[in-house]
Amino acid sequence: MGVPPENSLFRQRDSFSQLEGPFNGGVLILALQPGRIDWHLTAKQAEEEPDSLGGLSLLKPEAIAKFQDLISRWMQLESYPPLIRLALGQVLLQPVETREAGYLQLRNYLPSVDLKPESTDFLYQINRPRQSTAVPSLRINRLCKWSVIRASKISFTLSAAQTEPTPLSRLVDSQQACRVELDINTVPEHQSKFDSATSISVFDELALLAKEIAEKGDVA
């Protein structure tokens, strides 16, 4: 499906293994352990990254689309193991100028929440399950966590004789962003195994549900 990994790890005591390598401007990680398979796509952390938020690198939308295509192709392999549960997680950021502007923006995504701009420490979590259209007997959790974050880069200066940063530091960059963490997953009560074709259909549905929340916000 690709090239050999740049880094690999195997832990014998719990049969955990991990493979890691570059993928479309990000870092692709495959983690394996008994009863569980995790695919992760994260952004590379680079100081001079044009798509960054206060030092936090962001993935381009096309990288996410290619990642989802990769998962679909993996599910078509003969070696694909039948699975009982599927899940898709995403962390999405939308830059804003201030915390107050972030709260005003979140009001567009959270119509049922009375969120005032002068509020602080806001965190809203909700699960709105839906019945699957790919597998009518299956329910899908749509768990979302909404907030506004501040990401910062801070510069410290060390002299040759120091081992710890000086108390004085310099703020290099800082930016606010609306943040939503998505966990779209099949309910644990479902114990039937998904074959390859069903897995692809359910995964595509998870991706569509995540896209709907990203575009429309907290919808029933």
Give a description of the structure.
The protein has 220 residues and is α+β, with helices and mostly antiparallel strands. The protein has one domain. Helices cover 21% and strands 39% of the residues. It contains three helices and eleven strands. It has helices at 61-75, 99-109, 196-216; strands at 7-11, 16-23, 26-33, 36-43, 52-53, 56-57, 87-96, 123-127, 130-131, 139-156, 169-186. A hairpin with a 7-residue loop joins strand 9 (130-131) and strand 10 (139-156). Helix 1 packs antiparallel against helix 3.
- Alpha carbon gap, first and last residue: 37 Å
* Low-pLDDT ranges: none
What's the oligomerization state?
Answer: single chain
pLDDT averaged residue by residue: 88
**Structural class determined from secondary elements:** alpha+beta
Question: What is the H/E string?
Answer: EEEEEEHEHEEEEH
**Rg of Cα set:** 20 Å
Number of helices: 3
| Percentage beta strand | 35-45%
State the helicity in percent bands: 10-25%
Number of domains: 1
Layout of helices and strands:
Elements: E1 7-11, E2 16-23, E3 26-33, E4 36-43, E5 52-53, E6 56-57, H1 61-75, E7 87-96, H2 99-109, E8 123-127, E9 130-131, E10 139-156, E11 169-186, H3 196-216
Antiparallel strand pairs: 1-2, 2-3, 3-4, 5-6, 7-11, 8-10, 9-10, 10-11
Features:
220 residues, alpha+beta, 5-stranded antiparallel beta sheet, 4-stranded antiparallel beta sheet
Please give a quick description of this structure.
21% of the residues lie in helices and 39% in strands.
